[in-house]
Amino acid sequence: MEEIGFLGIGIMGKAMAVNLLRHGFKVTVWNRTLSRCDELVQHGASVGETPAAVIKKCKYTIAMLSDPAAALSVVFDKHGALEQICAGKGYIDMSTVDADTSSQISQAITSKGGSFLEAPVSGSKKPAEDGQLVILAAGDKDLFVQVVPAFDVLGKKSFFLGQIGNGAKMKLVVNMIMGSMMNAFSEGIVLADKSGLDPHTLLDVLDLGAIANPMFKMKGPAMIKNSYPPAFPLKHQQKDMRLALALGDENAVPMPVAAAANEAFKKARSLGLGDHDFSAVFETLSK
Ligand SMILES: NC(=O)C1=CN([C@@H]2O[C@H](COP(=O)(O)OP(=O)(O)OC[C@H]3O[C@@H](n4cnc5c(N)ncnc54)[C@H](OP(=O)(O)O)[C@@H]3O)[C@@H](O)[C@H]2O)C=CC1
Ligand SMILES: O=CCCC(=O)O
C-alpha cells in the first residue's frame, strides 16, 4: 500500500500507528501537540506539520481523534485536511463520533473529489497494540477494499456496514451497552464487598458463568485495588453515552439504564476522574 497518514497520536492512535510501522507500512503522523510525535519517529514515522501537509503527502489518511469537535476541527480548520483533499485521496476517520458529524465530514471530503470512510473501532489500548481491533466501517466501498491491507494489520475483523452513519451508530450502540455493563459490574463488586463476600471470589464466579467477558476479567482485579490506568479514558466513555442517548432520542428509544449510567460517568467526571480509565466510575459508589 502507499504511504499512510495518521492524524491523532493519543492512546489509540499511537498504538495503531506503531502497529502499522511494525508491519512495514510507511506512516506520516501529525498530532495537535506535535511533540507527542517524537516517539513515533523513533519507530520510523515521518512527521507532517499540519493535517493538510499529511494529506498532501499521503494517498490514504487515517484520523483517530477524541470527539466530534476534534474530528471536525482537523478537517475544517485552517491547515486542515480539507485544504489538500482531492480526487485519488482517501480519508478514513476511525474516531468515535455521531452519525451527523461523520456525514458532515463525508460531504466535505467527497465534495472536493476525495473518498471517505468512517471506521470506528471496538477494542481498546491492548487490542490496538496487538492488531486485534474490530473495525466498523461504512461509506465508500471502493476505499474500504483499498485499505483492507491496513485494516488487516489493525484489526481481527472488519465489517462493512453500508451507508455513512452506520459505523458510527454501531459503535455507539456497542459502547452504550459497555458503559451500562461497567456500572452494573461496579455495583456488583461493591455489593459483594459490603455484604461480606470476597470480591475476588465474585470475579471467579462471574468468569465461569454466562456473563463472563474480557472486560470484567481484565479490569476487575485493578478496580478492587482502586486502580484505573487509562486504556479507555472515562471522559470518552461519557461522550459515547451522551451520543448514544442522543441517538435514542432521535429514534424514540427509551434507555433508562443507559441514562443512569451516563449520570454515573458525569459524576465521575465531576470528581476529576475524566482522564482515568472508564472503570473509575467505580469510585462514584464509595464517594
Ligand atoms: N482508548 C480506547 O480504548 C478507545 C478509544 N476510542 C475512540 O478513539 C478516539 C481516540 O481515543 P484515545 O486515543 O483513547 O484518546 P486520547 O485522549 O488518548 O487521544 C485523543 C487524540 O485527539 C487529539 N485531539 C483532541 N482534541 C483535539 C482537537 N481539538 N484538535 C486536534 N486534535 C485533538 C489529541 O491530541 P493532543 O495529544 O494534542 O491532546 C489526541 O491525539 C476517541 O474517539 C475514542 O472514543 C475507540 C475505541 C477504544
Ligand atoms: O471505545 C472504546 C472501546 C473500548 C473497548 O472496546 O474495550
Describe the structure in your own words.
Keywords: NAD, NADP, Oxidoreductase, Stress response. One of its GO terms (cellular component) is cytosol. This is Glyoxylate/succinic semialdehyde reductase 1. InterPro entries: 6-PGluconate_DH-like_C_sf (IPR008927), 6PGD_dom2 (IPR013328), 6PGDH_NADP-bd (IPR006115), HIBADH-like_NADP-bd (IPR029154), HIBADH-related (IPR015815), HIBADH-related_NP60_sf (IPR051265), NAD(P)-bd_dom_sf (IPR036291). This protein has 13 helices and nine strands. The longest helix has 29 residues, at 166-194. Strands 1, 2, 3, 4, 5, 6, 7, 8 and 9 form a nine-stranded mixed β-sheet that branches. Helix 9 crosses helix 11 (214-224) and helix 9 packs across helix 12. The chain is 51% helix and 13% strand. The chain has helices at residues 11-22, 38-42, 51-57, 68-76, 99-111, 125-130, 141-146, 148-154, 166-194, 199-208, 214-224, 234-250, 256-270, and strands at 4-7, 27-30, 46-47, 60-63, 90-93, 115-118, 121-122, 133-139, 155-160. The protein is α/β, with parallel strands linked by helices and 287 residues long. Helix 5 links the parallel strand 5 and strand 6 (115-118).
